[in-house]
Write a structure and sequence with these properties.
2 domains; single chain; 16 helices; alpha/beta; pyruvate-formate lyase- activating enzyme; Rossmann fold; six-stranded parallel beta sheet
Length: about 425
């Protein structure tokens, strides 16, 4: 009945939703928009009318006037995404779900959706929408895993963000995939075991179209393949822009590449150190010929703000890891240290291991957020892991610690101070020790 009514209508309407797990307050204006939903909009056929709702800024509509709803979800968003999906389906509006959590848990997602997209949406969305209009929507749409090193995706539709306020809407994705296959990560298995890059000319043309100078790359490892990254960096060096991204620390082994990164306008990089000791300090994505402390010093010396991610809770971590990590931060003085509790996400080897060993405390996905202990650590209790993480965060973000980092990072001191103070706020709201 719904399909017949839709076929009589000239313009079918698609509502895309990015769920929010909690109220952000003023911090929402420092967030970045969902690039994945902009990409979905970009590959939606032109005869569809597309609306994007970001729940951190918008209210969820009741569904009237929409023919199909698409919801994306990472694991920590899954419970809220299911609530939203159930609401629309009760009102007779079909729902499709995609994103990382539905990709790794499709059967679970199907209890809340009419169809699930597994993997990348771009190659299969057109067929899905065609099937929907023809009244033959399938339960599962599985994207093929790319077997080459080329990434072909359209530019995102930024105009659907009109009326929303973000830190910037000038976000770019240059690459996907990863060859390292870390056991706490899903990227390699679902997005390919190699770095796939867009053509440099296409990336640079997109950047030239931006009205402002700040650009954020949303890559997992922008500099993972230096040969592919160099043409992008060389092109940006002639534009006078400022940019930031995520990468591994290994790129700093190449001093000439580091100089090019700085010359291209890089103001900040997020790198995963993961662990300062044990097996996870030797991950191939981050370890190399030079000590991590030396590589961090090189990056800071180039005037680049360096945010480091450190994880607590690996199986070779006991309670001494917290003091060792704080000592590492004091000695290496990253611009902005970030501490996370190990989270065994579904779809990873780590999740499967802990599930088989009976070490998962629960599967309340809303608590799989890097800030709560959801498994039984091997060498300490869950309470000891949580308390150690809490104390490390509070210690690293005292005013003396912040000022020490700012002083020892001479490049962009004002920006570095502002960034640290922005991070201090959430730390101050953590429970007391």
């Amino acid at each position: 009945m719904r399909t017949d009514a839709l076929n009589r209508r000239i313009v079918p309407r698609l509502l895309l939703i990015y769920p929010a797990t909690h109220k952000l307050g003023w911090v929402k204006y420092f967030q970045l928009p969902s690039l994945s939903l902009q990409q979905v909009a970009a590959v939606t056929p032109a005869h569809w009318q597309v609306t994007l709702v970001d729940e951190s800024q918008d209210s969820i509509p009741d569904g009237r006037g929409y023919d199909l709803v698409g919801i994306t979800a990472m694991t920590h968003q899954a419970m809220r995404a299911y609530e939203i999906a159930d609401q629309f389906r009760r009102n007779g509006v079909p729902v499709i779900m995609g994103g990382m959590h539905p990709t790794v848990m499709p059967e679970e997602a199907l209890t809340h959706a009419d169809a699930v997209v597994i993997g990348e949406a771009e190659p299969i969305l057109g067929q899905l929408l065609k099937d929907f209009l023809g009244g033959r929507l399938q339960k599962i749409y599985r994207a093929p895993i790319a077997q080459d090193d080329r990434l072909d995706i359209p530019r995102p539709r930024r105009e659907i963000l009109s009326g929303k306020r973000y830190l910037t809407t000038q976000t770019v994705q240059a690459s996907r995939g990863c060859p390292y296959d870390c056991d706490f990560c899903t990227v390699t298995h679902y997005f390919g075991n190699r770095f796939r890059y867009r053509e440099a000319a296409d990336i640079l043309a997109e950047i030239r179209s931006f009205p402002r100078k700040l650009v954020i790359f949303l890559d997992d490892n922008l500099l993972g393949d230096p040969a592919k990254a160099r043409p992008i960096l060389e092109g940006m060096a002639e534009m006078g822009i400022r940019w930031g991204s995520q990468t591994s620390l290994r790129f700093a082994e190449d001093r000439e590449l580091l100089k090019l990164v700085a010359r291209s306008g890089c103001i900040g990089l997020f790198v995963g150190i993961e662990s300062v000791t044990g097996n996870y300090s030797q991950l191939s994505k981050s370890s190399g010929k030079s000590p991590q402390a030396e590589l961090m010093k090189r990056v800071r010396g180039a005037g680049i703000i360096l945010e480091t991610s450190l994880i607590f809770g690996f199986d070779d971590h006991d309670q001494s890891i917290f003091e060792k990590t704080l000592r590492f931060v004091e000695e290496c003085v990253p611009s902005v240290p970030t501490f996370n509790i190990l989270t065994p996400y579904p779809g990873t080897k780590l999740f499967q291991q802990y599930l088989q060993e009976g070490r998962l405390l629960h599967q309340d996905w809303s608590r799989y957020n890097h800030s709560e202990v959801v498994f039984k650590p091997l060498l300490m209790t869950p309470e000891q892991l949580y308390r150690g993480w809490l104390e490390a965060r509070k210690t690293a973000y005292t005013i003396p610690s912040i000022l020490s980092r700012v002083w020892n990072n001479p490049g962009r001191r004002f920006t570095n101070l502002a960034y640290n103070l922005l991070r201090k706020g959430p730390n101050d709201r953590l429970p007391s020790l």
